[in-house]
């Protein structure tokens, strides 16, 4: 697409809009770093609002009193809006964005009219308000245009993990955005989409990075910048690992693998659309916006410093055939089918003659459904309370650093990657490894 100025996309996550001071910082960043281009700004829910809305929704579903946590969410947004002296939208919703009050009334309304069943569908209708509220406040603080992405970013009906309808989304965005962008910065929601029948969907927790990539792909953006509370893409999460180092430049391939193994700084679906259209992804610090950060793009580089990744709350499930026959392709087909059906993603797998093991995220609900399906055919053992560690580009020292003193329940290595599952330490606070 041709733009009078290059189109850049900025994505601000929960930490970068956690309160009024953070939003003032966002405004400064946009003024100082976004002025030489057309700018689309993708914003997530403020701070931990998505978790708070999940909690309210669960209480409402359970028929319990949710008035206090809901009031806390409403008060919080109203206080931030007041502090920033933003009024919260046009009085007549037909003329422009809704007001903050409109949105808060809508969420209350939806919570009081929940119906039995369709848990995931109703989850999306409620939890999506975090992004709607945040974008309204940020758009007003910036004096920018507020765009409801839901009629444009089309997904199917896979609630809580909407699958993007790329041709329709591209057509919609190309028909709408260039004109809006030519008038100034546009602010829209991360994490949200909409179905053809007008229902809201969400793209999977922490999916706002992915939204930025979807917009970039469809609109042919020059670059995407995700503003984080870290100096860039590091070789490990600095909240868990000591002595981290920043990668100045990383290839798409390497980043996809890190995100896949669980480096939570970038949502795993973000990279592919950018790589396909060769759009660079810049990871920069909103605490030090002038600093270099990390450039993820089509590049070649030498071996990177070993990357350490931890996934918590894991579950190791082993299936044995009941008659001691070999684990066959037919048996594996049944196991994979059941795992897909209950939506348990496999992070690691290993098989022996009569048993097959997988490491997945722990969900009591999904595990129970899996056991119900497969108990008749297999003897199933499982362990919970586990951690999965991955070391990319490992060497002997990095393996020693993580495994010393650990009992490994399962381990696996390829030429570049070493992975193991072990028990999470009991009653030990998060520690720097
Ligand atoms: N390899 C890594 N490099 C940098 N940060 C990482 C890495 N792995 C995990 N993180 C964590 O990711 C966090 C930033 O991502 P996230 O919380 O999703 O940001 P936001 O929600 O603001 O977009 C950091 O605070 C850090 O704790
Ligand atoms: N607010 C959503 C989407 C998101 O991406 O958030 P963040 O950018 O703060 O990770 C969530 O918490 O899942």
From TrEMBL:
Annotated SUPFAM superfamilies: Carbamate kinase-like (SSF53633)
Enzyme Commission numbers on file: 2.7.2.4
Family statement: Belongs to the aspartokinase family.
Pathway info: Amino-acid biosynthesis; L-lysine biosynthesis via DAP pathway; (S)-tetrahydrodipicolinate from L-aspartate: step 1/4; Amino-acid biosynthesis; L-methionine biosynthesis via de novo pathway; L-homoserine from L-aspartate: step 1/3; Amino-acid biosynthesis; L-threonine biosynthesis; L-threonine from L-aspartate: step 1/5
Species name: Hymenobacter glacieicola
Reactions the enzyme catalyzes: L-aspartate + ATP = 4-phospho-L-aspartate + ADP
Keyword Iron: no
Alphabetized NCBIfam families for the sequence: asp_kinases (TIGR00657)
The entry's keywords: Amino-acid biosynthesis, ATP-binding, Kinase, Nucleotide-binding, Transferase
Protein name listed in UniProt: Aspartokinase
Domain (Aspartate/glutamate/uridylate kinase): residue spans on this chain: 8-284
